[in-house]
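Dear colleagues,

As part of the handover before I leave the project, I'm documenting each prediction I ran so the next person doesn't have to rerun anything. This entry is a single chain, and its sequence is reproduced below.
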Amino acid sequence: MVDTADLVPLGWSDDLAEAWAELGSPGRPARVSRLDRGWSTAVRDIAEARGAADPLRIRNIGADVAVGDWIVPSDDGERVEHVLDRTSAFTRRASFDGMRAVSHTLAANIDVVFLVHALGSPPSPRRLERELVLAFDSGADPVVVLTKTDLTDDPEPARAALAEVALGVPVLLASGITGDGIEAIRGYAAGNRTLAFLGASGVGKSTLVNALLGASRQAVTEVREGDQRGRHTTVAAELVPLPGEGWLIDTPGVRAVSLWLSGNGIERAFADVFDLMDGCRFRDCKHDQEPGCAVQAAIAAGDLDPVRLESLERLIAEEAELEEEQRAREKAADRRLGGKKPPESSEYRD
């Protein structure tokens, strides 16, 4: 019987143990810490994770693998035999034209995802709405972080603007330069939990990573004066151990937040609007000019920003378009195979 006690510090949980048992408990699981063009680097204990021993290098061709995944190597140690069912996955639409109907998993088995925005430029409620949809659908718990508090004397207006969109999701203030808020972020890693950060380039993610790790592990670049954007300083997702306990999946900056198919992420991110819709007179209300529309009544009373309704409608339309693209892709594949079901394939990654 394989002893999994050494896996607990890596984030091993009862859910993962159950998924492993359903496969017949084959081999010793390992956790993917990095991907490099068809190869996975995976760790099997804390010594490998902290660089005191060599990790496993294994081919992942034909396997749907993301950083943070738990895998079971083949008996010869040459390839990924199994990928354990994920407890969460941060998935978006692939970013290249021609691959829009294909999913791209940025990271897997995350417990808390921090949605990072920065002071020094106007807050972006519309981007946050998209990020919240992705976060809720991932299965991880979202937390908003407003960084670079060292750049302003009063971060409260920006924090309040994002809190209105976050609908009860915590909104933290932090600075990787001064250290403000870092311990609050670190506290979410207690119990060997895994943290991930999502944010555009230049919002200060790498500075936060350095502050959390207590070392200048990630390169940091200056942002442009005009739009406060920066270059990507993290070029590949990587699972990094935090001092003490817990894990951090550092991902490259994501400029375009493209949705994948939503489970209930849209409903949760726009719970205020959906609650109003329940009060409309007609079940098929389009929330335009119908009589008895609770949504339009809230807009007229100043209780709902009309831009928020417009944003919701855009996201619903975007998801419907993606569903249509997927149906067209499946039909094309079916025609190429003469009606036969296409074989399983790994997800596209950039």
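Residues 5-83 form a domain with the OB fold (Dihydrolipoamide Acetyltransferase, E2P) fold (CATH 2.40.50). The CA atoms of residues 91 and 105 lie 4 Å apart.

All the best with the project,
I.
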